[in-house]
Specification:
Structural class: alpha/beta
Strand order of the largest sheet: 3-4-2-1-5-7-8-6
Distance between the termini: 7 Å
Oligomer: single chain
Strand content: 15-25%
Largest sheet: 8 strands, mixed
Radius of gyration: 17 Å
Helix content: 40-55%
Order of helices and strands: EHHEHHEHHEHEEHHEHE
C-alpha cells in the first residue's frame, strides 16, 4: 500500500466532458461529480481542473465548428464557462458539496505575490471543505487557445500540474480519452503494452509522446509528459487514466495499477 493520499488535483479533458457535437455529456459529468464528492466527503481535499469551455460555448452558440478567430474563441469560452459552472454547481449541490470557481492566467501563477495570494485562496477554500473548480481564463487570456504564445501555461494538463505544485498536492490525476502511456501506438500496434509505473522521464519515455487528440481538445501525450515532469519535480505523483471509467478514481487514490503512474523522486520506497 502507498501512503494515504490527501490533497488530490483531478484534471478532466474536453473529450471526457462533451459529446462529439461539443454539447456537455451530462452522464459523464454526473459520474465525475459523484466520485469527487464522495472522495471529498471521505476526507480528501479535492481540486478539479476542468476543460471544455470553448467546446461547450461553441455548441451553445449554435456554431458548426470551433471558431478560428481569437475573439470568437474567447467569446465561446465565456459562454461555455458560464454553462459548465452552472451544471457543476447544480450537480455538486445534490451531493451537499459546495464549489468555487477559480479562473487563472499565466500572470497569476508567474508573479510571486499573486501566486501567494492564489495559494492562500486555495488553502482557505479547502480548509472550509469547499471544492475549487479551476480553468484557464480563456476569455481574457490566449495562452491555451493560441498554444505556444506563453511560457507559463498553454494547456490544462500543464495548468493542473502548476496548480498541484502550487497547492502542495500529493497526487495529480489526468482523466482523458486514453488508458495511459503505451510503449507503442496502440491504434497501430496491437501488441502495444500499457506502462503502469514510470519513475523517470527518460528519452525513451519522452519519445513515446504522440500528437493531440480530437478537435474538441488541445492536449496530447506530449503535454501530459510535460505535466508529469512538473508534478514529479514538485514531489507529486501523477496518473494518466481513462475518464470513461470515473469509478477507477477510487483505486487510483489507493495506489492500484490503473493507468500510468508517474512516481515522484524519493517515493519509490513507499510503493
Amino acid at each position: 500500500m502507498i501512503r494515504n493520499k490527501q490533497r488530490i488535483v483531478v484534471k478532466v479533458g474536453t473529450s471526457t466532458l462533451t459529446h462529439s457535437s461539443g454539447s456537455l455529456d451530462l452522464r459523464s459529468m454526473e459520474r465525475l461529480v459523484r466520485v469527487l464528492a464522495d472522495l471529498s466527503g471521505g476526507g480528501r481535499e479535492i481540486i478539479l481542473v476542468t476543460s471544455g469551455a470553448i467546446a461547450v460555448g461553441t455548441a451553445r452558440m449554435g456554431l458548426d465548428e470551433r471558431p478560428r478567430a481569437l475573439r470568437m474563441k474567447q467569446a465561446a469560452a465565456a459562454v461555455g464557462q458560464c454553462r459548465m459552472m452552472h451544471i457543476y454547481d447544480k450537480l455538486f449541490s445534490e451531493y451537499n458539496c459546495t464549489v468555487a470557481q477559480i479562473l487563472l492566467t499565466g500572470d497569476d501563477v508567474e508573479d510571486p505575490a499573486r501566486a501567494e495570494h492564489l495559494k492562500n485562496t486555495f488553502t482557505s477554500l479547502l480548509e472550509l471543505g469547499i471544492l475549487p473548480v479551476v480553468n484557464e481564463n480563456d476569455s481574457v487570456s490566449s495562452a491555451e487557445i493560441e498554444t505556444g504564445h506563453h511560457k507559463v501555461l498553454g494547456d490544462n494538463d500543464t495548468l493542473s500540474a502548476i496548480v498541484a505544485e502550487l497547492c502542495g498536492a500529493d497526487l495529480l490525476v489526468l482523466l482523458s480519452d486514453i488508458d495511459g502511456l503505451y510503449d507503442a501506438d496502440p491504434k497501430r500496434d496491437p501488441g502495444a503494452k500499457l506502462l503502469h509505473r514510470v519513475t523517470e522521464l527518460t528519452p525513451q519515455i519522452l519519445e513515446m509522446a504522440g500528437g493531440a487528440g480530437t478537435w474538441r481538445g488541445t492536449g496530447g501525450m506530449a503535454t501530459k509528459l510535460s505535466a508529469a515532469r512538473i508534478a514529479m519535480e514538485a514531489g507529486c505523483d501523477m496518473v494518466i487514466a481513462n475518464g470513461a471509467r470515473m469509478e477507477e478514481l477510487y483505486g487510483i487514490v489507493e495506489g492500484q495499477d490503473i493507468g500510468t503512474r508517474f512516481i515522484a523522486a524519493g517515493k519509490e520506497g513507499a510503493l
